[in-house]
Amino acid sequence: MKYIELSTPLIKIENLLKDLSFLKKKEKVLKIDIPGEGNMNLVIRVYSTLRTFIIKQSRPFVQKYPSINAPLNRIQVEKIFFEAIKNEDINKYFPEVLLYNEKNKILILEDLVNSKDMLSIYNSMEFDENGIIKIVEILEGIHSTKIKNDYPLNYELRKLNHEHIFIIPYSKDNILEEGLNEVFNNLVNDKKYIEAVKLLSNLYLENGDSLLHGDYYPGSWLKNDKNEIFIIDPEFSYIGLREFDLGVMSAHLIIKTGDLNIINQIKRYYPSNIQINLMRQFAGIEIIRRIIGVAKLPINRSINEKIHLIKIAKSLVV
Asked: Where are the domains of the chain?
């Protein structure tokens, strides 16, 4: 297996792409850069003499946190997700797969030109009702995709995600931002809340009946200069409960707006039947883990505002 790094000489990247029979005749690699903030995998944009494209490569650890081990097959799960939606209407909201190489755990994708992730929605980027309708519409399309019985369980990556969502945020070893200790202690010492967390953690690990994106938040949403929305990074995909994806999405819109009514708004735009209370609970869990867990969000909020978010998140869970 040949690993690519940001420091890899361009000629080595070019030779690897030639070995994969990806480059066209006389096509040369000119430069590379980072298209956005990647957490799980190495992600680079390649500029050639003919085009740009995205290379994703998984390795046995989390790209952003190398001390955390992660399963290599997550890139294969992403490839299978793209195959599953290929003939669906929602396919147009995802990048085209240009090549997959199992040996080197490489996925080469269309470069969604002039698109940026939507992580700035918490602080500055406008995101109106039409944007919410669109991301709900895309998510419902994912959930309604017909999948084969042998779709990957993705259990190893789910176990890793499970630890970061349901275990680490409540650990006594959790390193907290100054000022959050009291609200943290109120969480971990509330038996009713901790029992609810355990129940939800078990539901997350169970298999369901719908195709999930698995990490449906603004880091996986892109918007281009025409205000078109695209979705990336379905490596956490599995067959599970729709309410998990919906809860995660709701959580981030609540963090942006501070408005709990966003949950009822999403429910109005989502045509399929769901358990809204379960969706609320997963939303609360996601808010808390994004404030006191490892994968914190880039949000400009005061300590008091974060405490308020944690309190309303707790109310959603219990």
From this structure: 10-110, 115-317
